[in-house]
């Protein structure tokens, strides 16, 4: 994704924002409006370039959330929501699991989306499934006490174990 035009463009915008933030650190109030317009278009686009740019941008959700929390909640978190668009969610989860990282600043917003992902784990490449399991483990240890209180962890482990057993049966 990162070597294709849409991915390269997304990386350019991320570098541009890093430079802009560095130069305006004391006056920073969030993403500039022209960038928001562009990112909204990319988040809703249907072209291959939009798809690849989305994948790269969601993989940097932690950084985008740092730059503009409200915009991240409005535009990027919904891209991981399977109930909105399964194709888009599958693509964005692949990017997020491949290069992204959860942060406590948005963990409560994506915990339900991790749960939505459980029935789709079999659609992922093994590396993405491993990354999902790693995320579940780190969230359970470092993320939130809510993961045990509402059975979130149990449901995740049950789904991961079922997938593992299915893989062992194939061998």
Describe this structure in words.
It contains 10 helices and no strands. The chain has helices spanning 5-23, 33-44, 48-59, 61-67, 69-76, 86-99, 104-117, 126-143, 146-149, 152-170. Helix 6 (86-99) packs across helix 8 (126-143). The longest helix has 19 residues, at 5-23. The radius of gyration is 17 Å and the shape is globular. The two termini are 31 Å apart.
Features:
single chain, 171 residues, mainly alpha, 10 helices
Provide a compact summary of the structure.
This protein is mostly helical.
Order of helices and strands: HHHHHHHHHH
Average pLDDT, rounded to a whole number, is 88
Continuous helix count: 10
Strand tally is 0
Low-confidence stretches: none
Main sheet attributes: strand count, strand direction, barrel closure:
none
Report the β-strand fraction as a percent range: under 5%
Measure the end-to-end span.
Answer: 31 Å
- Subunit organisation of the chains: single chain
Binned, the helix content reads: over 70%
The coarse silhouette is globular
Q: Determine Rg (CA atoms, Å).
A: 17 Å
Query: Which structural class do you get from the secondary structure elements?
Result: mainly alpha
């Amino acid at each position: 994704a990162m070597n294709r035009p849409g991915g390269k463009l997304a990386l350019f915008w991320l570098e541009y924002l890093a430079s802009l933030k560095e130069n305006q650190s004391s006056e920073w109030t969030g993403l500039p409006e022209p960038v928001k317009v562009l990112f909204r278009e990319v988040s809703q686009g249907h072209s291959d370039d939009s798809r690849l740019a989305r994948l790269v941008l969601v993989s940097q959700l932690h950084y985008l959330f740092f730059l503009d929390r409200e915009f991240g909640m409005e535009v990027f978190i919904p891209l991981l929501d399977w109930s909105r668009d399964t194709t888009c969610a599958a693509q964005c989860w692949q990017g997020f699991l491949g290069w992204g990282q959860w942060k406590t600043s948005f963990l409560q917003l994506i915990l339900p989306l991790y749960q939505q992902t459980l029935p789709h784990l079999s659609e992922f490449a093994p590396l993405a499934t491993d990354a999902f399991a790693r995320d579940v483990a780190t969230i359970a240890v470092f993320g939130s006490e809510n993961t045990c209180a509402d059975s979130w962890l149990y449901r995740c482990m049950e789904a991961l174990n079922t997938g593992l057993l299915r893989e062992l049966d194939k061998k």
